[in-house]
Amino acid sequence: MSDEHKQALAVGREQGRAVRRYLEALEAHRPKRGRKRTPESIERRLSAIEERLAGADPLTRLQLVQERMDLQEELATKSEAVDIASLEAEFVAAAGEYGERKGISYGAWRELGVDAAVLKRAGIRRGGGEG
Predict the structure, then answer these.
(1) What is the pTM of this model?
(2) pLDDT for 58-95, tens place per residue?
(3) 22 by DSSP, 3-state: which?
């Protein structure tokens, strides 16, 4: 394998990582329907679960334990600072070439939640391909 080929593979891997990190951040921070939960409201619910656990029947206890685990994970995710601007800049630099190489359409990017303005900055246009 030539050095040129190795370099192309490394570039492709880095582009894939940039695209994946941005899409994961979009998914993790996508607005959810209904009232937004604050860290305080999550803490209140966790306290209520702890109070109910001791007297709960086994099936209810199972459900409460799962809810507690879900809420603890949500709370940890909320406390993680994500630099979406940095991830977006990396995405913009990588997505055009990556998408063209992988045959990814404008519509596919949009369906995953990538904003039209971000795609435009990445050189990805509606008609397909780069512009």
Answers:
(1) 0.61
(2) 999 999 999 999 999 888 877 666 778 899 999 999 99
(3) helix
Domain with 19, as residue range(s), is: 1-29+82-131
Q: What is the dihedral of CA 34, 36, 42, 43, to 10 degrees?
A: -140
3-state secondary structure of 124: strand
- Please name the helix (run of DSSP H) or strand (run of DSSP E) that holds residue 102, with its range, or none: helix 84-102
Number of domains in the chain: 2
Residue 124's φ and ψ, nearest 5 degrees, are: -105, 120
Which of 29 and 25 is assigned the larger pLDDT? Answer: 25
Mark whether 17 and 52 lie in a shared domain.
no
Same structural domain, 87 and 129:
yes
Q: What is the dihedral of CA 123, 83, 107, 122, to 10 degrees?
A: 0
- Between 40 and 31, residue with greater pLDDT: 40
